[in-house]
Amino acid sequence: MAAGTTIHHHKSGHAQARARRRRSGGKRAGLWHFLSFAAPGTLIYFCLVVLPITLSFGYSLTDQALLRPKTHFVGLRNYELLLRDDTFLQSLRVTTILTLIVVIVPNVLGVAIAVLLDRRGWLYNALRSVFFTPMVISSVVISVIWTRILADDGPINQALRALGVSEPPGWLSDPDIALYSLSSIVCWQMLGFCVVVYLAGLQGVPQELAEAAAIDGAGPVRRFWSVTWPLLAPALTINTVVLLISAFKIFDHVKVITNGGPGTGTTASVALVILNEGFVENRTGYASAEAVVMLIVIALLCVITLRVLQRREVQL
Amino acid sequence: MRSTVPWLRPLVALVVGGVFFIPLYIALINVFKESRQVASGAMSLPIPPTFDNLIRVLTSPDSLFWSSLRTSVLVTSLSIVILTLLSAMLGHYLARQNTWWSRVIMVLLLCGLMIPPQVILIPITQVLKALGLMSTLQGLVLFNVGYYVPFGVFVFSGFMKGVPRELEEAAAIDGATRWQTFWKIVFPLLRPATASVLIFLGVWIWNDFLNPLIIYGPREGTTIMTGIYKSLGQYAADFGGMFALMFLATLPILVFYLLLQKQFVKGLTGGATKG
Questions:
Q1: Size of interface A-B (CB pairs under 8 A)
Q2: Is residue A73 part of a domain?
Q3: Bond before B48 cis per omega within 30 degrees
Q4: Considering the domain B58-274 in this protein, what is its CATH number?
Q5: Do A113 and A227 have their domain in common?
Q6: Domain limits at A151?
Q7: Which residues, other chains included, contact A112 with Cβ-Cβ below 8 Å and sequence gap of 6+?
């Protein structure tokens, strides 16, 4: 084992610790240290995440399915079929639209609300908690609440009828609108997260900078764009990456609110399609190919976003 | 720099917060309304309030609430305790060791932070089947531990940077073993990190829907969130009952969050000033 190298790699200046390690038996102690501290967590992680991912890649090259007695290696055929699979392509379109909305809207509203709430006092503390509450509530509960509110005869449409709108929109029943309603619900739930992260970012903006800009004659808008916004770059990075990942893997809301409908697949996200394919149709090989595509897309999106956004971050 | 209209900011903040809160307000008042009141004026206050909905859910003959509450409490508490212990140890190990394989483990764990469960659920069910743990509570806990360990390690190893190495060396000179040093000296110092790991993972695991749905399965019962999903049909005509069930399912985790939040905020500021 690498216990010997452990000792040599250690930065100098830890002579006593090194001596103790040698006294307690060098290599054996290092191995024991690994086994007692690192092995349990690492082993479970490998069995339940690293091994399954490897298996996913493997399955995606086979025609594995519950009802098929023998599984064959089919090479890249599943991936070829994916390129012509309307259900899958549609789900990519749906997920892309949803992700775009969910990355942009809570970011924009979040920074505005954070600037609004960036004051001391009980009122602002209370409002901060109000905005964060949906983050602590299960997406199942959030979904059921909104399903009720946006129902054809729900509170919103009742209010619209009372205002004289004779045929209010079917927020969740109209195939042209449902995806946007669904995205808005996700935005509402994620907004609090963005607010809290931007508020934390605003705490790090030195008051003197804004004051100096004010003395130089910059108005509030100019001060925000030239001083505050550039310094919020790390907050933007965190929010964008978290929203991106959460939106792209969206499942709970879709499952509970629309289950992919109305119509065929108008709100079916990639995650919903993969799970239907894998656990309802039981075509696990094909579903694994879809999962691999999803993983690659998420990884690429994350890497690109991080590259682009971290370049903006300035050091004070 | 002061605004010329001092009441404008609180007023706008109040209105924006109020509009944002409307859905939660509707959900909350519906808990205390009779079902026919719910169907009519959705925004009106529940006067007089009724506790029938809560009682109906708490005393329903299938005891769905109580059995799924028990499952959720068990799964969540077991998962977060095991996760805290394992990821604190692993985080400490990886933060203090500087070998090529500890760096490899770290990179693999960081990759795990962005992997959506959907991507690995199909093979996971097969791994759990092979271990004989599919559709069991232990299987779900094991999955939670494996899936969330990267987050725990990420928080703990980050926090370890603020814990002086000399402390551990001093303990070693005094003859303490690594095990004693970690649990008696280092772990108590990691309290803020522990609080944030407990809060985040507690909320995520309690509120989780997809993984219990697939892994725990219907045979052995449900966690509280899959329970809500499965009883949607049963409560289709009983909005009051539905909202009461959701209220009762959210209450425990909300209380847990509020209790730990203070600890968490305190810890954050404490850690920051210590530098």
A1: 226
A2: no
A3: yes
A4: 1.10.3720.10
A5: yes
A6: 79-312
A7: none
Whether A189 and A294 map to the same domain: the answer is yes
Min distance B93 CA to chain A CA atoms (Å): 6
Tokens of B20: 């944002």
Chain A CB contacts of B112 below 8 Å? 45, 49-50
> In A, residues 144-163, which contact B (CB 8 Å cutoff)?
144-146, 148-149, 154-155, 158
- Whether residues A40 and A126 share a domain: the answer is no
Domain ranges of chain B: 58-274
Determine whether B209 is exposed, middle or buried from the number of CB atoms within 10 Å of its CB (0-12, 13-18, 19+).
buried
Q: Which own/partner pairs from B128-134 qualify as long-range (CB within 8 Å, at least 24 positions apart)?
A: B128/B215, B134/B215, B134/B217
Establish if A67 belongs to a structural domain.
Answer: no
CB of B207 within 8 Å of any CB in chain A?
yes
Of B120, B179, B206, the CB nearest to A52: B120
What's the domain count of chain A? 2
Residues of A in contact with B203 (CB under 8 A): 135-136
DSSP A154-208: SHHHHHHHHTT-SS---TTTSTTTHHHHHHHHHHHHHHHHHHHHHHHHHHTS-HH
CATH number for position A101: 1.10.3720.10
Give the minimum alpha-carbon distance from B161 to chain A in angstroms, rounded to a whole number: 15
Q: What is the pLDDT of residues B115-166, one digit of tens each?
A: 999 889 999 999 999 999 888 899 999 999 999 999 999 999 988 888 888 8
Tell me the three state secondary structure of residue A73: strand
Best A55, A137, A139 member to test B by mutation, with max B CBs in 10 Å, is A137
pTM higher than 0.90: no
* Residue A129 contacts B, CB cutoff 8 Å: no
Is A198 contained in some domain? yes
Do A121 and A9 fall within a single domain? no
pLDDT (tens place) for every residue of chain A, 316 residues total: 334 444 444 444 455 555 454 444 567 778 888 888 899 999 999 999 999 999 999 999 998 887 777 888 888 989 999 999 999 999 999 999 999 999 999 999 999 999 999 988 899 989 999 999 999 999 999 999 999 999 988 888 988 988 988 889 999 999 999 999 999 999 999 999 999 999 999 988 888 888 888 888 888 888 888 888 988 998 999 999 999 999 999 999 999 999 998 988 899 999 999 999 999 888 999 999 999 999 999 999 999 999 998 888 766 5
- Same domain, yes or no, for A51 and A126? no
Residues A47 and A187 in one domain: no
User: What residue in A sits closest to B121 (Cα-Cα)?
Assistant: A52
Residues on chain B touching A146 (C-beta within 8 angstroms): 23
For residues A32 and A28, what is the distance between their CA atoms, to the nearest angstrom? Answer: 6
Cα–Cα distance, B234 to A186 (Å, whole number): 26
Q: Between residues 64 and 123 of chain B, which touch chain A (CB distance below 8 Å)?
A: 86-87, 89-90, 92-94, 97-102, 105, 108-109, 112, 114-123
Alpha-carbon gap, residue B271 to B189, rounded angstroms? 9
User: Distance of alpha carbon B187 from its chain centroid, rounded?
Assistant: 21
The interface predicted TM-score of the complex, written ipTM, equals 0.89
User: Do A286 and A157 have their domain in common?
Assistant: yes
Interchain CB contact of B138 with A (< 8 Å) = no
Point out the residue among B142, B203, B243 whose CB comes nearest to the CB of A136: B203
Residue A70 lies in a domain: no
CB contact under 8 A, B13 and A55: no
| A52 and A86 share one domain | no
